[in-house]
Prior knowledge:
It contains 4 helices and 14 strands. The chain has a single domain (35-181), classed as tt1808, chain A. A 6-stranded mixed β-sheet has the order 3-6-9-10-11-12, with helices on both faces. A 4-stranded mixed β-sheet has the order 5-4-8-7, with no helix packed on it. Strands 1-2 form a two-stranded antiparallel sheet. It is of the alpha+beta class. A hairpin with a 2-residue loop joins strand 11 (143-150) and strand 12.
Amino acid sequence: MDALRKEEYTYADYAKWPNDVRYELIDGEAVMLAAPSWQHQSICGEIFRHIANFLKGRQCKAFMAPFDVRLNAFERDDTVVQPDIVVVCDRSKLSGTGCVGAPDMVVEVLSPSTTGMDTVLKFKKYLRAGVREYWIVDPDRKTVLAHLLKDGGYMTSAYAESDRAESHVLEGFAIDIGDIFAQ
Length: 183
């Protein structure tokens, strides 16, 4: 694809790319996204359904990928991610195909091709951008790591399949972890 011959890109470049192939933009580098498995989609759908139902009639709104999150839009604007699930409470951040700035909550479901990206690189990006709550869902271990932003760092709570995870950002929201992985 001719659009991907430069060495560094910004959101302005990204916005011109065709929609038939999904990319994320990390520090100006284009990263192609693989198609998710049906299991991945099932888990995302279950979590999204619970969150969206909880948020019905409330200020916050939930979105599923593909949904652009421009983490550093007011700086270099060279990082655009597409988390599996995003919750935005400040609707003034919604623009075009996504969110400008940090959403309130992000959920990433791990897959073999994204584990390193989601647990290390995106973890740091979300922390730096100020994402208030970041859940990492591991289908292999049937666990959820819920990271809550506090005093400039993430405090982590680990939940197993038999646990009930509670959100601190979405006050009153909780989900049985076993429900997430029921196929």
